[in-house]
Structures are given as structure tokens and as C-alpha cells.
Automatic annotation (TrEMBL):
The lineage of its organism: Bacteria, Pseudomonadati, Pseudomonadota, Gammaproteobacteria, Lysobacterales. It catalyses: a 3'-end 3'-phospho-ribonucleotide-RNA + ATP = a 3'-end 2',3'-cyclophospho-ribonucleotide-RNA + AMP + diphosphate. Residues 179-268 form the RNA 3'-terminal phosphate cyclase insert domain. Signal peptide: none annotated. It is an enzyme of class 6 (ligase). It comes from Luteibacter rhizovicinus DSM 16549. Residues 8-322 form the RNA 3'-terminal phosphate cyclase domain. Pfam families: RTC, RTC_insert. This is RNA 3'-terminal phosphate cyclase. GO terms for biological process: RNA processing.
Amino acid sequence: MIELDGQAGGGQLLRTALALSLCTGEAFAMTGIRARRERPGLLRQHLTAVDAARAVGKATVEGASTGSTELRFTPEGIHAGEHRWTIGTAGSTTLVLQTVLPALWMHGVAAHLTIEGGTHNPQAPTADFIDEAFLPLMERMGIDGDFSMGGHGFYPAGGGRITFDLRPSAKPSALHLPHRGEVVERHARAILSAIPLGIGQRELEVARRRLGLGEAEVSVRQVKSPIGPGNALSIRFRAEHSTAVFTGFGIKRVTAEHVAEGVSKAASAWLAADVAVDEHLADQLLLPMALAGEGSFSTTLPSAHARSNAALIEKFLPVEFSFDDEGGGRWSIAVSR
């Protein structure tokens, strides 16, 4: 059984451990889960990920309770087919998906996954990010499936839904992204759930001015039958070899202009760095590239989160990560056996 210390990160370390345990069949015990957070231990959204992994891996689990800082997980196999999980809050549906999808992919099985909860959560990849930035790269690595969003779920109401139909797929293959190539598409979209239209229009005006977007490169999406109020500004740059999605969220007592300035600044920084992968997508690529046994990409300064995640992956798989500073704000991350 692999012994892990969860103090170095948040829920992502636990989700990575669950995903790799399912992929390898290796049991693990983690202590200090989210120990340095204001609310340490497992929360409802983490427990949904544990329950999902338990169902997919036919696993025996100890310590899966609210507030627990210790967990033992022993997988016994892979249960494909149809699964449905409800978080019950605005906890991230996409993070639950990323917990179980790698193992189902690795084992070459078919599955239909439905997850209800938050689709647009400030602390997690949005459904748009998964659909537009992450999954296209996974398809290049070999996954075969269809992703859809059946409803938006914003904090705190949740109520959104995502589905993924996985077809039997080839095991992950190596992917190398040294350059992004030319930017071929730009778009900014304001998403409004029970929020006045003017909020989105003000956000888009800032994005147009800061990023030089044309009138046809912006749009508003008003959520039909909203569960609760919510607002996000999503800016997408699609290049020849990769896509970057940057998202900002409307917050009480924060102006629409301030939200848009923050997202536009992040997008501008990625453009100026001339790298293939932004900081958040970099975090998401480590695990699938490690499963392939080989991969690399250019990115901006790696987060501490990425480094701790890489260290955990190395405990499960016979791979090694390298983080190389190429100067001028450009970094290269690579994984090899």
C-alpha cells in the first residue's frame, strides 16, 4: 500500500491518488488531507469523488466521512457501464469526471457518466474549459467519447449537469506541444444566469478593448431556466496546436469591469509568453501524459500545485517529471519513463 501525505495540497492530491489507484490497481493510504485549509478534511464534493472512484473501482474504502483527514482506498477492478453521481452542492462536476475517466480510458471500456452539481466553479476547471481546451488534447492522445453539458451550475446553487459517453479507446499515446502555432480563433463569451444583460455587455466591452476583439468575436449566453444567479466571462484563444480558455467569475461588490480586466490580463499574459499551454491546463495534462509514459509542453511559470501533483504521480508510476526554465517567462515541462 502506497503511503501518502496530503498536507502539501488540497483536494487535487486526493483526486490524483484516486485516479492513479484505479489505473494501476495500487491501494493507498493518505493522511493530512487538506490539513492546511481553513476547513480541513473531506468536504461533500471530495466525498462524491471518493464515492465515484469506489463505484468504478469496486473498491474498499475507510475514512470516507465529512471532515476526515485520513483515507484508505483499495481497488478491486473496474466497473464500466452507466454511472450517475449527484454532488448536491455547487461542488465541481468536472473534477469528479477527471477522477474516474483516466481509469475507464486506460482499461479500454465503454461507460456513460452523468454528474450533477457545479459546472462553473471558481475553484475548478469549468465545463467550457474541459470541452474546449482539455478534451481536444485528450482526443489527440487517443480517447474516444462525447462530452455535453445539460445545464449550468453556479456557486452556491449548483444544479448543473455534465455527461460523458466513453467508447472503448486506445491507451494514451505521447503528446508533445513545444509551440502553440498561430492563433486562429478568438472569442469572449459572457454567461449570465438570472443576472441582468448589462453585466455581460460591460464585461465584453472591456474584453474587446483590452484584447482587440471584433464585434463578431464576442457573445452573450443567457441561461435558460436558471437554478440560481451566476456570471462568468470565458475567453477562448484557439491556436494551431492547442486552445487556452480563461475564466473570471462575477462576485458580489466586484464590478463587471474588474472581473473582465482580470480575465483579459491573464489571456494577454499567455499571448505574450508565446507558450502552448496556460498554467491551469498544465496542471491537467500531467496525469494523462504520465499514463502515456511520455509527453512535454511549453507553459508559463509552473504552480506549486503542479509540482506537488507531479511528485505524487511519481509515487504511482515509473516516470519522472522535469521542469525547465527557458527564460523570458517560458518553461518546459516533460515526463518520461
